[in-house]
Amino acid sequence: MTSFPELSNTPVICFNGFSREFKKDRIEAFRVQSPLEGDWLSRQFFVRGWLISKTPVKAFHLFDMQGRYTSRVAPHEHYEDVHARFSVDFPDLDKKIAFSFKLRQQDISFLEDGAALFLYAEHQDGTLEKVARLNLSVGEVDLAQALQDGCGPSFYIGGAMKGATSAIYEYLASHPSVVPRYPKEVHFFSKSHEYEKGWAWYLGQFNNAANRYQHREGVSPAPSLIGDASPSYLTDTHAPARIARYTPGAKVVLSLRNPSLRAISHYFHEVKRVGDESRPPEEVFSAANLDMAKTVFEAEGYDLDKLQAHPFWPTLRYFTEGLYGVYLQNWQDAITPENLLVVNYHLLESAPQEYVSTIFAFLGLDVPEGFEVAKIYANDYPDLDDAIVARLDEFFEFSNAKLAGLLQLPERWF
């Protein structure tokens, strides 16, 4: 049994829900999306939510109980019909202007037990209207015992971007013995700004999920599974060892896609959905850029913290996540074979039922009667010139060969 003495008696701040305090003079409805009641908070946390107002809102503010200003953010304005989002809580709601917001609270370590924060909306005329009181409590949690008791993920899903991690999570979330947690991605083990929030914050992301998973028809009486599906774990050099140390019994599923096709899909994702790529594919995947990528990898290695700071990163990002042979070694060194499953994304295309059944069996789940695998998050993109694909295949050859050796594959996947 792993010992975590440094995690015993860890101070935590618990979110105990909110109370609406607006008078409906201008505000019609309000909802907090996160944190959720029962969540443990870090010293830095985010308040996200929606508000519907009769008149435009130009900013949201947080104040403490002494009236001290702590945070301000401009909202995102939505003119579409938001009826569907609020129809359960507010069935008689008319079409109004909706505003979403995400407030970052820099430091709440000064709070005392029973403290609160107050959310205000600032209207265009400068008027401040109180929206809600966020209720907090301060205490201590023995995180070492919480970890031993199974508080935290029982499985992890990692994989390259555009490698079906979202699809896998949706299949699992539909199973009656799996507690769905949204958003599915926490990135705690791979993003330094998340990891610095501490274990109290991370475990708090799962501590109350079961309480929000109420009375779903067909829920199994067996202990439920809950997971963290963060694609970035695959290529992070720290994630495997961190996961192995703090959740040593957890299962890990890694989904791998042909790296050349993955890079192309990633490119079109940035072009069409994100909008931060304007170069033609012939330039991005040119022989010169591939040679430059090799030079950078030889000089800098494969640590993403270093690579993301490199000026060539806007191009490197298409290649790093496909170097499976480089990153899989870290996982095999850290995770025991019985707790690590590597799956071929393309089996989801050719034999989807087998693909999902393999993952379910690995996690100890039966396939529900009548369960059918639907295609999820499929994105089409135009075919590229064969010469581009050939260049990419050649670029990834060394990694693909290493992958085949690590997995002891009778036939190459890629």
Features:
414 residues, alpha/beta, Immunoglobulin-like, Rossmann fold, 2 domains, six-stranded antiparallel β-sheet, five-stranded parallel β-sheet, 15 strands
Q: According to CATH, what is the class of the largest domain?
A: Alpha Beta
Helical content class: 25-40%
What's the CATH architecture name of the largest domain? 3-Layer(aba) Sandwich
Percent in strands: 15-25%
Mean pLDDT: 83
Order of SSEs: EEEEEEEHEEEHEHEHHEHEHHHHHHEHHH
- As laid out across the biggest beta sheet, the strand order is 3-1-10-9-5-6
Task: List strands and helices in order, with pairings.
Elements: E1 10-20, E2 27-34, E3 40-41, E4 45-53, E5 57-64, E6 69-73, E7 76-78, H1 83-86, E8 97-105, E9 116-123, E10 128-141, H2 143-148, E11 155-159, H3 165-173, E12 178-179, H4 192-195, H5 199-207, E13 225-229, H6 239-246, E14 251-256, H7 259-274, H8 281-284, H9 287-300, H10 304-307, H11 313-320, H12 324-334, E15 340-344, H13 345-350, H14 352-362, H15 386-407
Parallel strand pairs: 11-13, 11-14, 12-13, 14-15
Antiparallel strand pairs: 1-3, 1-10, 2-4, 4-8, 5-6, 5-9, 7-8, 9-10
Helix pairs in contact: 6-12, 7-15, 12-15
